[in-house]
């Protein structure tokens, strides 16, 4: 059954990417604006599929950071972190370390969001609109 689920998810991801590419330029720009990311970043995220960026909530949990609190206090920061995570070049390593329970000790060595995560842990991250 797992294979069929994976195939179904692949088809869904493929369909979403095709739908996005079928939009005209203005519609793609509007959609990207609505979700708060650049159009090219949205296109890359769609190309990577629905699993892109799923490691961030797992890492935040491993570090005892509450995603909902971050969302309320620093929604722009979280959105940026999600975008960075969805384009991460070391996603397999990250997943492996999360699966092994090692990510909380090792994320600084590989995670492109490490500096932001550390700022959130120390309470020094700035909410959007402040600085």
What does this structure look like?
It contains nine helices and no strands. The protein has 131 residues and is mainly α. The protein folds into two domains: 52 residues, no CATH class; 79 residues, no CATH class. The chain is globular.
User: Residue share in helices?
Assistant: over 70%
Radius of gyration, CA atoms, in whole angstroms: 16 Å
How is the biggest beta sheet arranged?
Answer: none
**Would you report the number of β strands?**
0
Average pLDDT value?
A: 83
Q: Which oligomerization state do the chains in this entry correspond to?
A: single chain
The helix/strand series, from N terminus to C terminus, equals: HHHHHHHHH
Label the structural class.
mainly alpha
The shape, in one word, is globular
Q: What's the domain count? A: 2
Number of helices: 9
Distance linking N and C termini: 50 Å
The low-pLDDT segments are none
Strand share of the residues?
under 5%
Question: Keywords for this structure?
Answer:
single chain, 131 residues
List the SSEs and their pairings.
Elements (H helix, E strand, L loop, with lengths): L1 H21 L2 H11 L3 H10 L6 H8 L4 H7 L1 H12 L4 H10 L2 H4 L7 H9 L9
In short:
This protein has 2 domains: 1-52, no CATH class; 53-131, no CATH class. It is 70% helix and 0% strand. The protein has helices spanning 2-22, 25-35, 39-48, 55-62, 67-73, 75-86, 91-100, 103-106, 114-122.
């Amino acid at each position: 059954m797992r294979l069929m689920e994976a195939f179904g998810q692949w088809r869904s991801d493929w369909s979403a990417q095709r739908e996005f590419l079928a939009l005209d330029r203005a519609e793609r720009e509007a959609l990207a604006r609505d979700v708060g990311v650049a159009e090219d970043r949205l296109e890359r995220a769609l190309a990577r599929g629905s699993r892109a960026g799923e490691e961030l909530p797992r890492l935040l949990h491993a570090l005892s950071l509450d995603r909902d609190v971050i969302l309320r206090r620093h929604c722009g920061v979280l959105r940026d972190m999600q975008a960075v995570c969805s384009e991460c070049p070391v996603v397999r390593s990250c997943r492996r370390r999360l699966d092994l329970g090692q990510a909380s000790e090792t994320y600084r060595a590989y995670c492109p969001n490490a500096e932001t995560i550390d700022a959130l842990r120390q309470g020094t991250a700035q909410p959007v609109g402040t600085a």
